[in-house]
Amino acid sequence: MNNRRLREQIGFYENELCNNILPFWVNNSLDSKYGGYFNCFDNHGRELVSRDKYTWSQGRFVWMWSKLAQSDCGTFTTKQKDGFLMLAKSGRDFLYNHCLISDNDFRCVFLMDETGSPKLVEGYDRYDMSIFADCFVTAAFARYALAAGDGESYIFSKKLYQSALDRLNKGDITTLPYPLSSCYRMHGIPMIFSNVTSELYFSAQKFEPGYIQTLKENLKRFSTDVLTNFVDDNYVLHEIVTSDNRFFPRLLGQHVNPGHTLEDMWFMEEAARILGNEEHWLNRLVTITKKTLELCWDHEYGGILHMCGVTGGAPQGIIEDDSDYTDDTDDSDDSDDSDEPMLKQTIDCWSDKLWWVHSEALYSTLLFYSKTGDETLLEWYDKIFGYTFDRFPNPDREIREWIQILKRDGTPQDKIVALPVKDPYHITRNLILIIELLYEMSKPVTG
Length: 447
What we know:
Layout: H1 3-28, E1 40-41, E2 48-50, E3 53-54, H2 55-70, H3 78-98, E4 100-102, E5 105-108, E6 111-112, H4 131-148, H5 151-170, E7 184-186, H6 188-207, H7 212-229, E8 240-242, E9 255-256, H8 258-275, H9 278-296, E10 308-309, H10 341-349, E11 353-354, H11 355-372, H12 375-391, E12 405-406, H13 425-442
Antiparallel strand pairs: 1-2, 3-6, 4-5, 7-8, 9-10, 11-12
């Protein structure tokens, strides 16, 4: 990219963030009575369908507002950044007071009503239904601690992280909305723990330098797990492997989640910088990124598929009973995975086009282009850019925030993905990161 195009891109993304995405959430999300945020809107953003608050989403909001408050690219005024920090504090305080099982039990509830009282998810009998909720709250408090200079938030983040890590090490975790049999492992676990460990690392640099080495050791463990146990010899990242880290021929084990993979590749690049492994890992990360796009791009309608097979196109694999593909050391009834929620999602939703997948792809391709100068990555970035901004921006100018879920042909659909919410997290995070990256790319080379 030349300097003129870099400046044009900065202006484009600042406009998208400031005039299309943020106004919807600044005006509609804050609960001024109880604290926290509302985001159970329909796909078009026209109707708030529930006042419930998912801890997962509350944490993402706090991270988002905190990150905006830290922005130093000149996109926002000091007054605007102070406003973002106030928005972050509302969610931070709401979570601090309500998200834990109890004051001394550092496990996060999954769902709350608008007042912060915990709610059971229909069909389940426990409040702590997802380790992902714990992870997003951990990241939120770590980021808020940095933005606000708040040591109490750092301590809360560290305690929750250690609790989540202890449960992970004991195998005592739940993963709603996609619980998975103990005979399998999901890529999403080492992926999210890599990201959360990085977030806590940045906060520990300010508040507890003595904890940094422990975090680096944890980060090495999680990132090595991803790149060793989930990536095959063809540089394809399988979303599910067996509990003893084998690839298996069932459909559940033969699919790629391109959004997760592309998101995780920039998580891995961030981990590599922290660990000093960037030169060693970069080529592998770039190869996985390009392979994922080659497999999961929809050549008929354009855009990136929600899921694809490990050889491309629709996911393919065995669904019926075949116990040879499971972990022989597990004595549970693991001979039939047809009831696995993740399998059902893969079969039913593989051809959908999702907002967050494309926003992650924009950032990862631009990031790796900036690192390598590989023109293939720039071509992919341009291709994804064209599809994304042709399809996802909301034509209703009263709303503006993106339509987030499309059918394969690119037409909008109302559908639940993971949580029954409209989620600004991926779009906002990637727009911020892209703006920061473009500013770095536009700086004169010195030295």
